[in-house]
C-alpha cells in the first residue's frame, strides 16, 4: 500500500461514521447523508474491518458508540471539519490578488474602513476580506494572511510585525451627564460610574494613579467588549470611559462626547500589522506598504 494512503480509510466510510456519531444512530445518519440504514451499517462495518477494531457496540437492533469509537471520533471529527473549511475557503478565493485580514473591531470600523477607498484607488485589483478578531491566533490554523494587533511584540510570538502607531486614551463622557455630575478634580471620578473596555480593565487604575489619585479601593465598573459600544454607552449618559481619541474623533468634533480632564493615558502598547514570516510578497506586500504609509499620518 502506498505510504501516503496507508493510514487513510475510504472517505465514504469516514463520512458515514461521522454522521452516525453526530446523529446518534445509523438510521438518522442515513437520512442526513442520503443512504439507507443498511448502507451506513456496511460502511461502518468496513471501517471497523479496516481499523481492526469495533467502534460501536451492537445491542439488539441498537448501536452505541464504544470507548474506541469515541476516542476515534474525538480525533477524526475536528479534522473533517478543518478539511471542509479549508475546501470552502479555497473554492471561495476569487483571485490570487485576494487577502484575508483580521482586524480589531473598533479599529477596523473607525480607522481602517474610511481609508479603504484610497487603497482601492491605488490597487484596483486588490481584493480584501476583513473579519473581526480581538485576540492573537495561530496563522497555521486560521485562514488569514495578516492581522491588526494591539499590544507589545511579545504578545504574539512567531510572526513578522510592523509598527503602525501608538494611541492615547482620554476620559470622555456626555456633556449633559457632565453638567449633572460636575467633575472638578480627578479625585471626583472615584464617586461616579467608570466604564471600561473588557480587555483593559486596568486602564482606570493606571490613569488615576498617574493623576495622583489612590485607586486601591476602586470598585470594578461596567465593561464593554468593543470601544464603539463603550462610546455609545457613555454618550447615552452611563458615566465616564477611557477611549483612544483616534476612535472617537467624530463624537468629539460633534460635541456628543467631551473630555473632562485633558490627561491622556499612554502605554508601551501599540498597533501592529502582523503576518506569518516569509510571506511578504505580492498583494500582502502592497497592503502592508499602504498600511504603514497610512499609519505615518494617523
From TrEMBL:
Gene3D superfamilies membership: Periplasmic binding protein-like II, Winged helix-like DNA-binding domain superfamily/Winged helix DNA-binding domain
Stored InterPro entries: LysR-type_TF_proteobact-type, LysR_HTH_N, LysR_subst-bd, WH-like_DNA-bd_sf, WH_DNA-bd_sf
Keywords tagged on the record: DNA-binding, Transcription, Transcription regulation
Coiled-coil stretches noted in the UniProt entry, renumbered to this chain: none
All residue ranges annotated as the HTH lysR-type domain in the record: 9-66
Sequence similarity: Belongs to the LysR transcriptional regulatory family.
Name this polypeptide is given: LysR substrate-binding domain-containing protein
Organism: Sphingobium cyanobacteriorum
Amino acid at each position: 500500500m502506498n505510504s501516503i494512503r496507508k493510514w487513510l480509510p475510504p472517505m465514504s466510510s469516514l463520512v458515514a461514521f461521522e454522521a452516525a456519531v453526530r446523529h446518534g444512530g445509523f438510521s438518522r445518519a442515513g437520512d442526513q447523508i442520503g443512504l439507507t440504514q443498511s448502507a451506513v451499517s456496511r460502511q461502518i462495518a468496513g471501517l471497523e474491518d479496516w481499523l481492526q477494531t469495533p467502534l460501536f457496540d451492537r445491542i439488539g437492533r441498537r448501536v452505541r458508540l464504544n470507548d474506541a469509537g469515541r476516542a476515534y471520533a474525538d480525533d477524526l471529527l475536528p479534522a473533517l471539519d478543518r478539511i471542509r473549511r479549508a475546501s470552502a475557503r479555497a473554492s471561495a478565493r476569487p483571485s490570487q490578488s485576494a487577502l484575508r485580514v483580521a482586524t480589531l473591531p473598533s479599529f477596523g470600523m473607525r480607522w481602517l474602513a474610511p481609508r479603504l477607498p484610497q487603497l482601492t484607488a491605488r490597487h484596483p485589483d486588490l481584493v480584501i476580506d476583513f473579519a473581526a478578531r480581538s485576540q492573537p491566533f495561530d496563522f497555521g490554523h486560521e485562514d488569514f494572511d495578516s492581522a491588526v494587533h494591539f499590544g507589545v511584540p511579545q504578545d504574539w510570538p512567531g510572526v513578522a510585525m510592523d509598527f503602525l502607531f501608538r494611541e492615547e486614551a482620554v476620559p470622555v463622557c456626555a456633556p449633559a451627564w457632565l453638567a449633572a455630575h460636575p467633575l472638578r478634580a480627578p479625585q471626583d471620578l472615584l464617586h461616579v460610574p467608570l466604564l471600561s473596555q473588557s480587555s483593559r480593565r486596568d486602564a482606570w487604575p493606571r490613569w488615576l494613579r498617574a493623576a495622583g489619585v489612590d485607586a486601591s479601593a476602586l470598585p470594578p465598573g461596567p465593561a464593554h467588549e468593543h470601544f464603539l459600544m463603550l462610546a455609545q454607552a457613555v454618550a447615552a449618559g452611563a458615566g465616564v470611559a477611557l477611549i483612544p481619541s483616534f476612535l472617537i474623533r467624530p463624537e468629539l468634533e460633534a460635541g456628543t462626547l467631551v473630555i473632562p480632564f485633558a490627561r491622556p493615558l499612554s502605554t508601551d502598547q501599540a498597533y501592529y500589522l502582523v503576518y506569518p514570516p516569509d510571506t511578504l510578497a505580492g498583494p500582502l506586500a502592497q497592503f502592508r506598504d499602504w498600511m504603514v504609509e497610512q499609519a505615518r499620518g494617523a
